[in-house]
Structure formats: structure tokens, C-alpha cells
Amino acid sequence: MMFDYKKCFDNYCSAHNLALHLSFSMPVGYETANGNFDPACKTVFINAKRLKNESDSTKAFFLFHELRHALQYLCPDQFSSTIQRSIQYIILYDGTCYKLTNERYLKCQLDGGEEYFTNLVDPSFTAQMEKNLDDIVAGSESRIQLLQTFYDSFMTQLAYAKEHIEKAKDEPSGNICPKCGSPMVFKNSKYGKFEACSNYPHCHYIAPKEKAEIPSDAPICPECGSPLVLRKNKKGQTFYGCSNFPKCHYVMEDKNAKVKEPIIVGKCPDCGGDLIVKQGKYSKFIGCSNFPTCHHMEKYIKPKKASK
Predict the structure, then answer these.
(1) Strand partners for 100
(2) Sheet holding 228-232: strands in order across?
(3) How far apart are CA 206 and CA 186, in angstroms?
(4) d(CA 54, CA 178)
(5) Lowest mean pLDDT among 73-87, 133-147, 149-163, 293-307
(6) pLDDT in tens, 76-121
(7) What does the alpha-carbon distance between residue 115 and residue 157 come to, in Å, rounded to a whole number?
């Protein structure tokens, strides 16, 4: 009896109230991977061909691994703050770091402590960890023992790093705190730079951000009478939103915004819709214009430049 991916997938999604799609066609760049999850199209990819000769327990392991990954992204409130923060980052074997920003991974610089954890991004460490995980699936190694060994080593490094890593110094802003009279400084957070009182935690004053100047000829919100301002969404598209947000949620389409026409490369063999070039989390792919009714996808091959 063959392993029923679809049944296990549907049962997991139903139990965790997830609206996901399952595909056995791996996205471009992941042809040699056992599985992947793309939050952009909410699809779990399983390389059934690669796992064809593996045991049912191995197939189940990779399916539930990707489903667990999906659950972390879509339902982060079900996980601890440490795990929620960790899924924002991808660290490659060479130590290059990418951070999830506006649904895209952008290259970033770590906060200065990465040299204290070099073994965690060392290829030999990662290769050994993958072997240990395979041994757990095969039943030849204890999951609890592996976690205990990793935990003991990691906590030793973490304690050393906390003691030796230099914290970023606050930059004086030249202003005085209106609440307690202490100097104001610029601080950095995961949301960006801000100005706050240097007397924290005794004083919690934070300088308000300066609002952009609203032009006199700005359109007026029909719901509350406040001026409408031009804003951008996560995809970079412009629209008009009420300046009285969050008290007023009125939005209006920017009719002057340039709409990028989709690149049509053919017809969908499944439903007859247009096949268009789409941008996934990591790379481009070809998908059906009738998504989510039709989930047909193909590998995108970049056109070769014409020789001169």
C-alpha cells in the first residue's frame, strides 16, 4: 500500500485550520530538495519522485516537516517568541544572512554576535545534524539525546556570547527629554531607528515621528473629512489612505499608478487560462492566471539574450 500524502495532508490542515495547497511539482531551484513551503502561494511542495523508494516513515517525516514550517509562518501565535523570531532569518552555510521583510528575504547584516556561533553555520556541523536527523527517522538514535547534546553545547556558547558581545552604543541626538530633562539618544530596534530618552528604564519617553507634510490640494476622505495621503502596500503599489488612520480605514485606488501588465507565455493545459510569469518567495515561476481555481505551475526558464 502506497503512502497517502493527500490524506495525511488534508487531516493535518483540518486539525490546524490551515488553508493550504499540496503540489508534487517542485519549484525552480528546489528540484533536488525533498520538500519546500512557499508562503507566497501557500503551497507545500513534496518531491514524491525523489522519495519514491523511501520508507513511509521518511515520507511522513518530510511532509509533516513542511506542514510544521507552514504552521510557523501562518499561525505564529501558537509558537514561542524565540521560534517566531527565528523564522524571520535564513543563514546559509557561508554565514550569509537573509531576513524576511515584506514577504521577501533580503540580505542583511547580523548584530555583531555571529562570530560567537560559527559552528552553527559550519557545513560539517550542518551535515552531521542532517545525518543525526536521518538516524532518528531510522530509529537508530534518540531524539531526546540529540536535543540534550545540542542544548548543552548551545547554552554554553550563548552564555559566553552574552558576556563578551559588545552592545551597540546609543547615538546622542542633541535634544532634551521633555519629561525628565535627560539627554535624548537614537536607538535601534527591529523596526528601525527611533529617538528615546537615555534615562530608560526610569523614563519611557519616545519622541513621536514627524508626519509627512500634507499638500493643500490633497483629496478629502469622504468618511471623516481628513486629507487623503499617498501610501504604498507591501507589493510597492500606491493607493490613497486616510491620514486619520487607524481611526479611519478608508482607502481609494490611485488611478495614476502604473499597472504592470502580466507576461503571458502560453495557455494552461489544465483549464485553458493564460500561463503568466509570477514572482515567488525565492524566484520566478510560471503559473495559471485562474489561480486559486487552477494550481498548474511550471518551471520558469530565463530567456537567453540575443547574440549581437
Answers:
(1) 105
(2) 228-232, 238-242, 251-253
(3) 10
(4) 67
(5) 73-87
(6) 776 655 555 555 656 554 556 666 666 566 666 555 444 445 555 4
(7) 11
